[in-house]
Specification:
- The radius of gyration is 21 Å and the shape is globular.
- Strands 3-6-8-11-12-13-14-15 form an eight-stranded parallel barrel. A three-stranded mixed sheet has the order 7-9-10, with helices on one face. A two-stranded antiparallel ribbon has the order 1-2.
- The termini are far apart.
- The protein is 35% helix and 13% strand.
- α5 (69-78) packs parallel to α6 (127-134), α8 (243-258) runs parallel beside α9 and α11 runs parallel beside α12.
- It has 457 residues and is of the alpha/beta class.
- The longest helix has 17 residues, at 438-454.
Length: 457
């Protein structure tokens, strides 16, 4: 029964404190907010009935990452869809409500929070603060479907958490430690005496929800890519046949759902139960099919949330298999290269209201090579490939698809390694050089125009 007590305690603690204001105080800021007139002036608007939906576009990430958290919060407050400017961030924020099966229609945008973390002379930290700063540049949700940010990293990784490494040295996000605190790459541990790691994550979630955006996290299921941490003992490799390990896995996910996250992206989900193992590229055993059914059911039950979206990496045409597992969307089934193929698939699956395979722009294994025009075409297909917006397929894209990376790196490289691109050792130089510059800004503007037309759907 401990999980019931944990549920009530965590919810009590989260509701008792305004996590955003607590974060501002921990950073030495005052909680009174001031309207950001410049952002108010330059913000992109949705077209037509979506005119009140606003975000910052025609940017490169360094434009926002160089700001303070206080400045970012003020921009977020300024872009309020309701038109009300809150001089103090509200105490309670609800997630945008698109029903229990919102994940069936959503656009999932994965943000590599480690890559945009604060890199300073060899150390990596404060990734969640960078995500807060980037929030004003993520398009809000549309009338009929949600946009959802997936964070690449939450837990500690096992190859050198908190340290940058050379561009050819392994430091994979796909290997993680459970039963310990959250990643040093992500949390600002210099202020944990004033605000806990959980409350820092909660502040991000509340600000995303204020922006009309849902939130999720990536999780692996390959046993040899996970370690279980125990105080005063060596880490042990995860074992799906060990009931204690399974319980830790569930508890870790429930904790995040209780902080307000509402989506879990499951790496290698297609192969659960030994399915299509000839194409499996993970390391280690996978859970059995019935075992994963139980795990997803328990996460929903223990968190008390019926609206969690479970997204499986990779899909196939055996849709009943994924529906019965408890998934809402699957990736890598179709690209957006052919608009009419996407629209025809949307029409074919319009009666499937719980689960659908999705349209991919790019995924976490992408090693580059797509032109800007090809990616924009895929985004167009993902946002408009239907006869009715209520029949839209889910879509999947990466940070690189909104904010293009520099020419000599790619999404998968940044998942596998943790290099700094700083020329002087400072965080700002890394942010400035990680992404494409003038052409990246122009691409971001063009991608923003597509979202602007889609938001009233």
């Amino acid at each position: 029964m401990n999980f019931i007590l944990d549920f009530f305690i965590s919810n009590y603690v989260m509701k008792k404190h305004n996590a955003v204001n607590k974060l501002l105080k921990a950073l030495g800021e005052k909680t009174k907010l001031k309207r950001n007139e410049f952002s108010d002036y330059i913000a992109f608007h949705g077209i037509g009935n979506a005119y009140k939906k606003r975000w910052l576009c025609n940017i490169v990430p360094a434009d926002l990452l160089k700001l303070s958290v206080k400045e970012a919060v003020e921009i977020i407050a300024t872009l309020s869809e309701g038109g009300i400017f809150y001089e103090k961030f509200p105490d309670e924020i609800e997630t945008p409500n698109y029903g229990d099966n919102w994940g069936r229609l959503a656009n999932y945008i994965e943000i590599n929070d480690r890559a945009i973390a604060y890199m300073d002379h060899g150390c990596t930290c404060k990734g969640i603060l960078s995500c807060i700063k980037l929030l004003p540049a993520i398009p809000p949700s549309a009338k009929s479907w949600a946009n959802c940010i997936i964070l690449s990293q939450i837990w500690q990784n096992i190859y050198g958490d908190a340290y940058e490494k050379g561009p050819a040295e392994e430091n994979s996000i796909y290997g993680l430690r459970l039963n310990t605190s959250y990643s040093d790459n992500i949390i600002d541990y210099s202020i944990v005496d004033k605000i806990s790691p959980e409350e820092q994550l909660k502040a991000f979630v509340d600000l995303a929800h204020f922006r009309g955006i849902k939130t999720g996290f990536r999780h692996v299921i390959s046993a040899d890519q996970m370690k279980i941490s125990t105080p005063y003992k060596d880490d042990v490799t995860f074992d799906w046949k060990n009931p204690e390990h399974q319980e830790i896995y569930i508890q870790e996910c429930v904790k995040l759902m209780n902080l307000g996250f509402e989506c879990m992206f499951i790496d290698s989900a297609k192969h659960i139960g030994g399915y299509d193992m000839g194409n499996y590229t993970g390391v280690g055993a996978l859970p059995e099919y019935s075992q994963m059914q139980y795990i997803l059911y328990e996460i929903r039950r223990r968190s008390g949330k019926t609206d969690i979206s479970f997204v499986g990496e990779k899909s196939s045409d055996d849709f009943a298999r994924y529906i019965n597992m408890g998934l809402n969307a699957g990736t890598d089934f179709i690209t957006g290269d052919d608009f009419y193929v996407v629209r025809d698939l949307s029409e074919k699956l319009k009666y499937s209201r719980i689960y659908a395979p999705g349209v991919e722009v790019t995924n976490d294994n992408n090693e580059g090579g797509l032109s800007y025009e090809q990616k924009l075409n895929r985004i167009n297909s993902a946002l408009f490939g239907y006869y009715l917006a209520s029949d839209k397929l889910p879509s999947f894209m990466q940070m690189n698809d909104l904010f293009p990376l520099r020419y000599d790196t790619n999404t998968h490289h940044l998942m596998m390694t943790n290099p700094s691109y700083s020329t002087d050792g400072t965080a700002f130089s890394h942010w400035e050089n990680l992404f494409a510059k003038d052409d990246g800004r122009e691409y971001n503007r063009r991608a923003g125009e597509l979202f602007a037309w889609a938001l009233e759907k």
